[in-house]
Amino acid sequence: MLLLPAGDINPHKPFSLHMQIAAICVPQQMLRKMRFSVAGLVFLCSSQIGALVVFPDSSEVKHGMVTTEHPGEAEGSRQPNMSDLLLKLVEMENRLTAAENQAKDVQKENEVLIDQLKYMEARLRISEVQVETMNAKAGTKVAFSVGLGGTGYYGPFNTDVTLVYPIVLTNFGNAYNPATGIFTAPVGGVYHFTVYHHSGQNRRSDSMLYKNHDQIAFISALNKDGSYNGSNGVILQLEKGDVVYVRLMADSWLWDHVNNVPHHGSKGWCHFNGILLFPE
User: Fold this and answer.
1) Is the pLDDT of residue 236 over 90?
2) Which residues contact 159 (CB under 8 A, 6 or more apart)?
3) Is there a single domain that holds both residue 164 and residue 213?
4) Residue 150 — pLDDT band, cuts 50, 70, 90?
5) Residue finishing a domain among 63, 90, 107
């Protein structure tokens, strides 16, 4: 606010128009920076109105009108309408408030768009990982065929035992462990397993295919009149890490023979086989 020295105030002479404007007008740039409240603007204008009041002590009342000591003063030098100035200031305040509200609305919309973009980026990353996983699974090749080996009888035992097939014919993916006889699924998917066993003459041969701790398929061979073959096959859906193996049941026998004669030999009679049909 502009303060005028007390000695400069003449109650018989109004301020000049320039002094009045300088005293009450605040530049628009200052208004935007300082952000006067409506109450502050009202107080400012009210104080200026009080400073601009001219008391007609030495004025002459002629024909019902109050005149000053300077009748020749131009009509254009009259005091500005303070109510109009106040209305304009209030209008500016309202416009600035509206602009601020619009800016807040735009900011909220931008925040919503940013959240949507982050969500889409997260979904895209998940899809990329899924595609990478599917490609890796599609490139996985799993197949094995192993034999019991040896010459003669295997067993019997007084308890069930896990069969170890040490003769490895194929082992793509190295999922079969020839030291333990256990196959471990490297990827989830659908697999096909087969078991072929041969019993000796007048011997009973019973065995069981397991998935983890569950009995899946029974293989039996018994012929009192001579040797006999038993076999079975299943298709299993496995998760990564599931295990499949064969156990010879108690009091059972197996007979195998490996003939390494060139062109006339064989890799035995007892085999355990598995292959990945398709990954999931």
Assistant:
1) yes
2) 250
3) yes
4) confident
5) 107
